[in-house]
Amino acid sequence: xxxxxxxxxxxxxxxxxxxxxSDMDMSSVLPTVTQIIQxxxxxxxxxxxxxxxxxxxxxxxxxxxLMIDVKEMSRAYDGLSNSLRLAxxxxxxxxxxxxxxxxxxxxxxxxxxxxxxxxKYTPLDRAGLYIPGGKAAYPSSLLMNAVPAIVAGVEDIIxxxxxxxxxxxxxxxxxxxxxGIKTAFKVGGASAIAxxxxxxxxxxxxxxxxxxxxxxxxxxxKLVYGEVNIDMIAGPSEIGIIAxxxxxxxxxxxxxxxxxxxxxxxxxxxxxxxxSFARKVQMYVEDELKTIKREPIASxxxxxxxxxxxxxxxxECVELMNxxxxxxxxxxxxxxxGYMDEIKHAGAIxxxxxxxxxxxxxxxxxxxxxxxxxxxxxxxxxxxxxxxKRSSIISINKKGIKELGKACMQLAEAEGLGAHERSVRxxxxx
Length: 430
Known about the structure:
With 430 residues, the chain is α/β, with parallel strands linked by helices. Helices cover 45% and strands 16% of the residues.
């Protein structure tokens, strides 16, 4: 793992590499993804079934083969242990409660000319959720994508997930049942994104596609944006931690590994003003690595994509972390909430010694679908608003057009749009 000091002569160069950590070279997969999308767009189910046989190792021949049976979802839910079922329900309830608080509300007001203005929020008709199933199965991602769509009021929610050999993870099936999913398909990767974006004989076209995925999924989402809306272009998972000597170094080490175990391309960063603390964390990372099942994955992540940085003070820690603009940010100090106003860029912020990032992944309540790779500078977490659209409301009466009409006509005339100008003038003349 890289161990850096901000006083190193080459720190600026090395830190800039961390800032650019997830520059995705989509050019390497672009031809393949473009071909996949075009084939599905033109060939519908025939092309889709061929691709599933190639990539997902099972051969559907009809829509029934592609669809996940709701009875299978129900059986999976009933088959859970009591403790796991309670945990899944607790997560659902907490995620739903949080998102209900954040649901946008329509609003109107009347201005000084008695003109009614406002905004109307309407749920989208159909949402497509992509739930990955590569190195691990993620029922939590189903909850985090389905619940805000449910709260938004989306009537038709479509789920696509890879089913290698035609099998779907039972816990994912149970989560679908809990969320009331009625339409789900066994298809993954760029093929799923194309199918939801353009529609096939089996899979209906959606209005928005959300959910994480690998570089093929991310590239496909980028290419179909405009045909449908998307949530964001997400890359490998990451965590940033600001900590001082008040934190437990073993806790911090394990928190770093909690992201490293996701993927070889995941990143974990610790920035601290205390070198002795940094060295202890480094030691615990080496010790704890030996104890986790996904050690081969986490080792690559920690070696190639992660770093511990020793800064001169807490102010510099915050400045550097703002530049990194990480997906998950933990602040592990005694007065952690005191830094809230200073943090400008982060997908989710975890304050205090007893707030590990994993709580946010599963059941704290806020969404775990977050901007990565520095995109927290301009993206927000997935939320109810991703499944709604806003329409502007305007209602002008005679008084209003009399007061504002002449100014509007002048602007229209200045732009050379005569019919615009006349549409106001005829009302004033009347």
